[in-house]
Every structure is written in structure tokens, then in C-alpha cells.
Design a protein that fits this description.
alpha+beta; two-stranded antiparallel sheet; about 200 residues; seven-stranded mixed beta sheet
């Protein structure tokens, strides 16, 4: 079982304003690595509310490459991959907005949402990343993109184990979800991760 967990932080209210990317890699059912990448946001300014959440400001990103400049390195984590995120609706919309604003063709990927899966499985009062991480005893530096991605990866593995299934697809379909898809084949297309 292989998949990539992702997390984006944004600099302002514009969905394309990626300032930080977190990646966590799961290979053969094990978390094998993770990465954190700063990105010069476009548009290049920070709202104080965003900075108060994730702690990132212009001093972290002013000399970094933009998303479009880094896409050739980043796309290996997305193209022909299975992706997960905690609140994938947000993270996948950020990805799509960033690609659209830079006229970059979509990668081809399937995606799943650990937020929605957690809500379907776990009897918790709240299902934010911090709540579910706490439930499973997963260490979290919340709103640090790499830590968030690692936590989402570990949550996915815990949910798969708890439900005694062999893959994210089996878990999602078994709970009545339609697997999300992003595709650049024949023009950019998007299908949300949602209840059937």
C-alpha cells in the first residue's frame, strides 16, 4: 500500500497563495519519509490571520522559488499517485487553484480525505487534525505542513488497520465514499471525494 499525504499552508485568502508544502510518503504500508518545502506565494503577501495560524511570513519565503518554478520537483508527489489529506477539499482546491493560476495541466491522481473518513469511523466530538491525532497518540506540530502531512499519513494507516482493510480505496468504498480524482487527461477535470 503506497500513498502520499499532503498539506498546504497559504499566505492569504487567495487559494493559490501556497507558502508551505508538507509531504509524507507511505510505502508498503509504512511511513518512510517526509519533506517540508517553503514556497514564495502568489500573490506575494501575507495576511496577519494566516501568519498567526502557521507562523510563516515573508522572511521565510522571500528568497524561495514560486510554485510554478518548483512544480517540476513537486509533481512527482502528485502525478499517478494516491493522495490523502486531512480536509482534502481544501488541500485539493489549493492545488487546483495554484495549477490553474499558472496554466499548468493537472496531474492524474486519486485522493482520499482522512477528515471525512475519521468522521465516518471515530466517535469523537470533533475530528480536526489535532483531535484525531490526539485520539491515536500521534505527535503533531499543528499547522506545520510537514507535521500535518505526517499526521494525516499515520491517521490513514490507523484507520485502515482499525477497519482491517488492505487499501485506502477499500476503506473509502466500504464506507460509501466515492474516490476523489484530479485529471489532466483530455483537459483538466476534478471529482470530489464524497458520499456516493
Amino acid at each position: 500500500m503506497n500513498f502520499i499525504a499532503i498539506d498546504f499552508e497559504t499566505a492569504n485568502s487567495t487559494r493559490s497563495s501556497i507558502c508551505s508544502v508538507g509531504i509524507a510518503i507511505v510505502e508498503n504500508g509504512k511511513l518512510t519519509g517526509s519533506e517540508h518545502i517553503y514556497v514564495k506565494p502568489m500573490p506575494d503577501y501575507y495576511n496577519s490571520i494566516n501568519t498567526s495560524i502557521h507562523g510563516i511570513s515573508d522572511r521565510h519565503t522571500r528568497n524561495k522559488a514560486t510554485f510554478s518554478q518548483q512544480w517540476n520537483v513537486l509533481k512527482k508527489y502528485f502525478h499517478n499517485q494516491t493522495i490523502i489529506a486531512h480536509n482534502a477539499a481544501f488541500d485539493c482546491s489549493v492545488l487546483r487553484y495554484a495549477l490553474d493560476s499558472n496554466s499548468i495541466a493537472y496531474p492524474d491522481l486519486d485522493y482520499h480525505c482522512t477528515l471525512m473518513l475519521s468522521k465516518a469511523i471515530l466517535p469523537l466530538r470533533a475530528h480536526k487534525l489535532s483531535d484525531v491525532s490526539g485520539h491515536f497518540g500521534i505527535k503533531l506540530d499543528h499547522h506545520h505542513a510537514e507535521s500535518d502531512a505526517r499526521a494525516a499519513a499515520l491517521i490513514a494507516l490507523k484507520l485502515i488497520e482499525r477497519n482491517n482493510v488492505g487499501s485506502l480505496k477499500e476503506l473509502s468504498l466500504g464506507l460509501g465514499f466515492k474516490v476523489g480524482k484530479i485529471s489532466g487527461v483530455g483537459g483538466n477535470a476534478y471529482q470530489s471525494f464524497s458520499r456516493k
